[in-house]
């Protein structure tokens, strides 16, 4: 079966750390969507590593790692990432596989991303400026270049043709970065790309499954950034929910097994768009400082707020989450009281459903309050039996509201700082 691990909020839930932990139980870790907009942080022998395109199973010598067809690849970023990871894990290249159907991010995609964001002014999405939107636009617009195209003899002509289109598009913008300066390293990186294990990934995965191999699909971004169900247009350009796994890897829905949904014990968002439980006060600032909430890809300060159970319940429903994993619980150690949103109120009416427009000024979250667990820090707990009563109350309330059990509680950045509440059968 193919198990799935996805973020349930606006990204940065701690997916990288959890995949790195769970990878011990899997033969293959596969990315199915997104691209270098992702920043997945893991600690390898105490050293911080941020992965953008490479799956987070790469530090386990038994794990194969696949970049699936649903991912958009910037070969320059991938090459740099490979160099960094190889220095720590010399055998990684032999365990890295890339689908020949994955689309490429070109220098002009990055330029279009930047130009379009600049032109939007205050209404900008807050994109990571990695060219994600334009690359997916070319994919669905049937203009894109794929990894397999790099191996074709007419690649240069194909590249020139799409570049020509982009140059025309860029002419409508006032502010355009000097993308030609990026073209040289892009062309150079193609040699490294060609030398990777490029595979017909859907057959490769099918064979692995028939041999009884265990596969974990690693999501990027989060459910509220999903192109269809997120806070549109303040979203990314791919399906970040479980449905994305089937199209992004070529996996039949009947082969999906466990779905791990990751949520922080509070909530963050980076970039623009609605965030009903956002705290723009000293509590929000305290969360940012305690949680080290600065973007792993862009370094931008993350917006912070309370956990939003309305949004989480929606995400659990959309993806069929079977096991929850709650991260960054230690960050709440010194907070009392704690709040979670349990409904949205608009014109005196309460609802537990996600509305069409989340950025409605009249919409206000309704909170449930907890006293917290300031007397016994969760960060000090070595196993689940040591968790304070205040924390257990918080966790049980969330499980009940969401209708899914919390399998693990993460209480620090290290791989082993994970307490199994109920051990999932993998
Ligand atoms: P991802 O994009 O979902 O992989 O998450 P990021 O790596 O962007 O952001 C999560 C951040 O939280 C990283 O800096 C992690 O090292 C850190 N982190 C993960 N789990 C925990 C936890 O349980 N406690 C604390 N304090 N930090 C955590
Ligand atoms: P991981 O995998 C948090 C956000 C951007 C912006 C919006 C669109 O680390 O959780 P894009 O570059 O995709 O066009 O940006 O989505 N965003 C993320 N926020 N974590 C991420 O990835 C993100 N990837 C994109 O900030 O608001
Ligand atoms: Mg991240």
Question: Mind explaining what this structure looks like?
Answer:
The structure is a single chain. The protein is an alpha/beta fold. The protein has 3 domains: 2-101 and 198-260, Adenylosuccinate Synthetase, subunit A, domain 1 (Adenylosuccinate Synthetase, Chain A, domain 1), CATH 3.40.440.10; 103-193, Orthogonal Bundle (Adenylosuccinate Synthetase, subunit A, domain 2), CATH 1.10.300.10; 265-420, Adenylosuccinate Synthetase, subunit A, domain 3 (Adenylosuccinate Synthetase, Chain A, domain 3, Alpha-Beta Complex). It has 11 helices and 20 strands. The chain has helices at 15-22, 75-88, 107-120, 132-140, 155-170, 180-194, 201-210, 243-249, 282-291, 309-319, 389-402; strands at 2-7, 28-31, 40-44, 47-51, 64-67, 72-73, 96-99, 103-104, 197-199, 215-218, 256-264, 267-269, 303-305, 307-308, 323-327, 338-346, 349-351, 364-370, 405-410, 418-420. A 10-stranded mixed β-sheet has the order 9-7-5-2-10-1-11-15-19-20, sandwiched between helices. Strands 14, 16, 17 and 18 form a 4-stranded mixed β-sheet that branches. It has a two-stranded antiparallel ribbon with strand order 3-4. Helix 3 (107-120) crosses helix 4 and helix 3 (107-120) packs parallel to helix 5 (155-170). The mean pLDDT is 96. It binds guanosine-5'-diphosphate, 6-O-phosphoryl inosine monophosphate and magnesium ion. Residues 11-12, 38-40, 296 line the site of magnesium ion. Magnesium ion binds next to loops.
């Amino acid at each position: 079966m193919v198990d799935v691990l996805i973020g349930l909020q606006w990204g940065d839930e701690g997916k990288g750390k959890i995949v790195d932990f769970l990878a011990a139980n899997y033969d293959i870790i596969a990315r199915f969507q997104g691209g270098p907009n992702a920043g997945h942080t893991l600690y390898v022998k105490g050293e911080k590593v941020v992965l953008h395109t490479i799956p987070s199973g790469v530090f386990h010598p038994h794990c194969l790692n696949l970049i699936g067809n649903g991912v958009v690849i910037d070969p320059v970023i991938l090459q740099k990432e490979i160099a960094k990871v190889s220095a720590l894990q010399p055998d990684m290249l032999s365990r890295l596989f890339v689908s020949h159907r994955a689309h490429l991010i070109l220098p002009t995609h990055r330029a279009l991303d930047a130009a379009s964001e600049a032109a939007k002014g205050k209404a900008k999405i807050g994109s990571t400026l990695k060219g994600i939107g334009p690359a997916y636009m070319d994919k669905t617009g049937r203009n894109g270049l794929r990894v397999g195209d790099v191996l074709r003899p007419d690649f240069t002509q194909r590249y020139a043709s799409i570049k020509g289109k982009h140059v025309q598009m860029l002419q409508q913008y006032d502010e355009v970065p000097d993308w030609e300066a990026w073209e040289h390293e892009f062309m150079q990186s193609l040699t490294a790309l060609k030398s990777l294990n490029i595979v017909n990934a859907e057959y490769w995965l099918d064979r692995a499954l028939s041999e009884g191999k265990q596969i974990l699909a690693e999501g990027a971004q989060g459910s509220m950034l999903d192109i269809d169900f997120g806070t549109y247009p303040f979203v990314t350009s791919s399906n970040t929910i479980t449905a994305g796994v089937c199209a992004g890897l070529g996996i039949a829905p009947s082969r999906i097994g466990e779905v791990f949904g990751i949520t922080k014990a509070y909530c963050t968002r980076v970039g623009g768009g609605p965030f009903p439980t956002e705290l723009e006060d000293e509590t929000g600032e305290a969360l940012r400082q305690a949680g080290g909430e600065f973007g792993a890809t862009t370094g931008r300060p993350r917006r912070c707020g309370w956990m939003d159970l309305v949004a989480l319940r929606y995400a659990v429903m959309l993806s069929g989450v079977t096991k929850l994993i709650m991260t960054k619980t230690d960050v709440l150690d010194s907070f009392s009281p704690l709040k979670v949103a349990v409904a949205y109120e608009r014109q005196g009416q309460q609802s537990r459903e996600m509305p069409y427009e989340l950025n409605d000024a009249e919409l206000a979250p309704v909170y449930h309050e907890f006293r917290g667990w300031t007397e016994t820090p969760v960060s000090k707990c070595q196993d689940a039996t040591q968790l304070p009563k205040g924390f257990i109350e918080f966790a049980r309330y969330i499980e009940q509201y969401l209708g899914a059990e919390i399998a693990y509680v993460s209480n620090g950045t290290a791989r082993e700082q994970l307490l199994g509440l109920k051990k999932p059968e993998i």
